[in-house]
Amino acid sequence: MRQILKDGAVYILRFDKGEEVLTGLIAFARQMDIHAGTFSGIGAASRVALSYYDFEKKEYLSTELREVEIASLTGNIGILKGEIAIHAHGVFSGRDMAAKAGHVKEIVVSGTCEMRFEALAGKLERAHDATTGLNLIQ
Fold first, then answer.
1. SS3 for 18?
2. Domains of the chain, first to last
3. 31: which residues sit within 8 A by CB, 6+ positions away?
4. What does the pLDDT look like over 46-95, one tens digit per residue?
5. DSSP letter at 134?
6. Cβ-Cβ contacts under 8 Å for 10 (sequence gap 6 or more)
7. pTM of the predicted model, to two decimals?
């Protein structure tokens, strides 16, 4: 991951072929001592791990996509149990141009992923919510 531009609290980041985006974002946040932020991105991926949260079962149902465009990637960075945590959702499409969307667990870049990241002041804390089974912002 490369930092291309910085303007105040806004960063333009570029991920290259073979890089995993979410782990790269976590490393960037650690390096910059960022505990809260939002991001959006576009690009292309060789592999995406997506999931859908089943509220009745309180578990994620997962699937994997291969060779897709990253039509839209959005999310936030916060803190969960003292560690940096990412919550991301995305929309992806393949050769058929049909959109697939959901909670993003992993993205491996095939061409590039261009991202706008905005660091926020303070901490965005997450904690487990027994009612939903999710780690919600507090």
1. coil
2. 2-137 (3.30.1330.80)
3. none
4. 999 999 999 999 999 999 999 999 999 999 999 999 999 999 999 999 99
5. S
6. 116, 117, 118, 119
7. 0.94
